[in-house]
Amino acid sequence: MNGGGGMTKKSSKQALSGEIEVGKVRQLQKRIDSNSDIVDSIVNKLVSDYCQPLDDYMVFIKSLLDDTTNPPTDRELDDFTLNLPVLLYFTGEAQEALGVKEDVARAVKQELYNEVFDKATGTIADKTASAELATQNEYIAHIAYQRAYKKIKLRMEAGYETLQSIKKVITRRGQEYELARIDPGRIGGK
After folding, report:
1. What is the mean pLDDT of residues 81-98?
2. Better pLDDT: 31 or 15
3. Average pLDDT score, the chain
4. DSSP letter string over 13-72?
5. Of 40, 165, 164, 155, which Cα lies nearest the Cα of 94?
6. pLDDT confidence of 88, banded at 50, 70, 90?
7. What is the spatial distance between Cα 33 and Cα 41, in angstroms, rounded to a whole number?
8. What percent of the chain shows pLDDT beyond 70?
9. Quick check: 173 and 74 in contact, CB under 8 A?
10. Rounded to 5 degrees, what angle do the CA atoms 42, 154, 135 make?
């Protein structure tokens, strides 16, 4: 409202400064990309260490599915339904071991944070800044374990989805075989 209500019209100032320094933004992007690559490498190594057998088997299943001229045989489907749960079991166990490491990484980070915060001088903001700066590596290690845990969880979920899909295919095939046995003319148009 303008006038006697005491409220003035908001200024039309922009949220960003008139000049964005493109060079600085690009340097920041390079720094972020470089550091992200390092963290991604750590995460991918953790995931690979814990998921390699499941990953290998999923690649094997995909290779059979990619061959559209030869659908998976009943024997291959049976193999999938027997092997996937075993691989998921061990991957789940490994995921929980990784979860323990994530908890330890969080505790190590917090312990160092608290030590630095207690020893730092100045305002609360100064102490917080000192503690955060001193624990950057511990923070990154914690984040790496956290991200790896989430990636493994997603892979396990995909493995369970694959298993459920395989079971549906087996059920459908069984129904088709039964229907063909009862009425051979209904399947394949014979």
Report:
1. 95
2. 31
3. 88
4. --SS-S---HHHHHHHHHHHHHHHHHHHHHHHHHHHHHHHHHHHHHHHHHHHHH-TTSPP
5. 155
6. very high
7. 12
8. 86
9. yes
10. 35
